[in-house]
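dude i think i finally got it to work??
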Amino acid sequence: MAKEVTMCTQLQQWSPVKETAGAPSIPPQVGYCFHSPKKHPWRPIMGYEEIEVTPMPSQPITNTMVDPCYTPAGMATEPLRFPNLVTGFERSPEHAARAALYTRYTHYEWNQNSIKNYNESDAKRNYSERVRNDIMRMLRETDEIGTQGQRDSGRRIGERITDTTFWRNEVSIEMERLVATCEKLNDTRRQLERAVAGIEGPLHIVQECLYHREKRQGLEQVHDTVEQSLLKEVAILRECQDKFRNMLEKVRQQSKNCRATQHELETDMRNKEYALGIDSMCHQLNNFSKGLQFYAGIERYDPTVCDAARWSAASAATLQRSQSERAKAVQMLSDAENLINVSATEIWDQWSNTNSAFTRRIAETIEIKNKLQLHLHKIQQEMFDVEKTLELLNKAIEDKLQPMKVAHTRLQARTNRPHLEKCRDEAQHRLVKEVCDLQETMETLRSKIATAEGTHQTLLGVRAGLEADLRNKSTALFIDRDQCMGLRRGYPVTAAIKA
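look at this
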């Protein structure tokens, strides 16, 4: 019984051979795998594992498991027992004596038995030698198979390391290029944001100019080239701002796509680095490495998810996606830079055209203002001359009053002549004619005074119109030259867009 327990508890050798359907299951491992302590040149190192002992009644009964000298408890059949001289004599002396007579052999049988043993020994020894030679040949073949397999596996792992290193380097280079492109995209995004915010300043200035020009009075509220340039500048600024916003949205979306592609590249490179570490460790393992263990059934476990072709295609697809996104980003960078340059040039040209229109309008207003001042000065001089003429006319009428008095007095005095002395003589005719001439002259002078006074009133109206127009010109000149141009000269429009 102790012998059977010892045989059941013996450690079994690990074998990679697949189990058959009728064979019992592999006992579960309960301890650490260890090797035989001594090495022998005629046998390999034996590896054993501790296994769980299973009682015999709990195992299925087969022909190979039945021991004729041992019967487990609970079996229905009893084992066969063979009597001999020792045991049989104690139980039945008569039977033992009779059996001893019938079991005796002759000398010939004894010699034949020896010859048979010699022949059998020679045959078995020859067979054992052949088996031993076959075993040695098999040992050499298995050693060669193991060595060649390990060499081929190492070479394959080395080739795999080379392939993985190549794709890792390609992914690393592509990721560096993509990161640089992402940085440029971020710079362009910030530049577009500054451009969108920078247009608010020029747009506010143009609107302020339009608001200031609404304060012009009278005929100065003309739809001139300056106002047309200002309205066109407002349209250009808003159009450029909308273009910048659209391009900024595209750049942000492309930046997100590039960041997602960068995450894929980082994940791929991290996985390849991890795989390279494992493959490098496996490539350096040999028969004398530490930490070697047995893993039962590991060859039947297949953790792979793809083959080498799909693996290479996946890496190539990741690189192709990255290159595609990077090409889109480069094209978008070029478009954004071109848009910024074209818009800045367009805005600056319109800004300069508006300033030129302001300059021409200011020069024209100054010229007209100077002409108005000249005409106003002439009107003032003419009014002064008319006033002097009126004074002369009034003095001339006053100067005619004394001769008129003299003539009237003479005529009155001559009316006192007696009888026939009241003759209509030449003197009478001349006095009458003198009075008529003086009256006609005074009437003419009075009509001239009325005409001069009307002319003076007309000149007053013209002067008032000139003065009002001059005030309007001065107001418009102040708005265009001081307020509008003061704002436009002090703002660098290109620095706000190309900052």
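The CA atoms of residues 282 and 383 lie 117 Å apart.
im so relieved honestly
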